[in-house]
Amino acid sequence: MNEGDKIWRIIVRPKARRRLKRLPNPLKERLALAIEQLAYQPRPIGSKKLVDVGDLHRLRVGDWRIIYLIKDGQLVIVVIDVAPRGSAYRNL
Predict the structure, then answer these.
(1) Which of 6, 30, 72, 83 gives 88 a disulfide partner, CB atoms 3.0 to 4.6 angstroms apart?
(2) SS3 for 3?
(3) Is the full-model pTM beyond 0.70?
(4) What pLDDT, in 10s, does the model give residues 16-42?
(5) How far is CA 84 from the centre of its chain?
(6) Which string of DSSP letters, residue by residue, matches 5-62?
(7) 75 Ramachandran zone, left/alpha/beta (phi>0; psi -120 to 50)
(8) What are the sequence ranges of the domains in the chain?
């Protein structure tokens, strides 16, 4: 069974949810779509595993980054933060 055959559960942490709420609708929709697609493919083309911060990954959506954790054994993806490129990697 491939990753594409499974549907993963997405958990969006409160910090990421608050930030998404405040964004303009077109950007919010692009980011929300990218997050939803992680349920079908948690390691899409263009995503990268972050170095020296555990199992965190990042997905680029324009100038914004989605920082997320993949829990393979539980089929869960936890969206830690959604942030502009310049501040996405602070406080990880």
Answers:
(1) 83
(2) helix
(3) yes
(4) 999 999 999 999 999 999 999 999 999
(5) 13
(6) GS--EEEE-HHHHHHHHTS-HHHHHHHHHHHHHTTT-SS-TT-EEPTTSTTEEEEEET
(7) left
(8) 3-84
